[in-house]
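tokens incoming
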């Protein structure tokens, strides 16, 4: 995927979307910890930053959201994480990141997923032109993962 570079690629008002830098890791892990309750994805986040596969949204120079992606899902772009700080939700950050990731995707097909119980994220996908593409059972007990797709 083309890197966004160290400078902001997309800035709307006080919001900027940019490629995460290693200096952002503490802020990113803090947001992830707020959402999942632990820092177990530290290595995953660090590797994504080093490989320039992590983008983030900054609001007033503070990390408000981040996303991690790769191209190992059947040689298509897959957005594996899209996390918005609980205190920063409902400001359009998830939509902005989705749109930027589709824009810079090196593949013509972009996929992502969310649990059936995550109705908020399902609405974000649908509002941004993603369509349901399948369901994966048995990842989280009793809460299937819905796969979403968007063509570039």
């Amino acid at each position: 995927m083309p890197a966004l570079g160290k400078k902001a690629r997309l800035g709307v008002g006080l919001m900027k979307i940019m490629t995460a830098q290693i200096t952002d890791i503490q802020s990113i892990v803090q947001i992830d910890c707020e959402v999942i309750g632990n820092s177990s994805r530290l290595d995953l986040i660090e590797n994504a930053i080093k490989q320039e596969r992590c983008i983030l949204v900054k609001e007033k120079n503070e990390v408000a959201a981040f996303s991690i992606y790769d191209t190992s899902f059947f040689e298509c772009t897959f957005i594996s994480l899209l996390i918005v700080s609980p205190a920063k939700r409902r400001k359009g950050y998830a939509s902005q990141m989705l749109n930027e990731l589709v824009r810079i995707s090196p593949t013509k097909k972009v996929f992502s997923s969310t649990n059936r119980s995550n109705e908020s994220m399902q609405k974000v996908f649908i509002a941004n032109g993603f369509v349901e593409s399948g369901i994966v059972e048995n990842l989280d007990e009793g809460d299937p993962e819905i796969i979403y797709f968007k063509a570039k």
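note: The CA atoms of residues 79 and 101 lie 8 Å apart.
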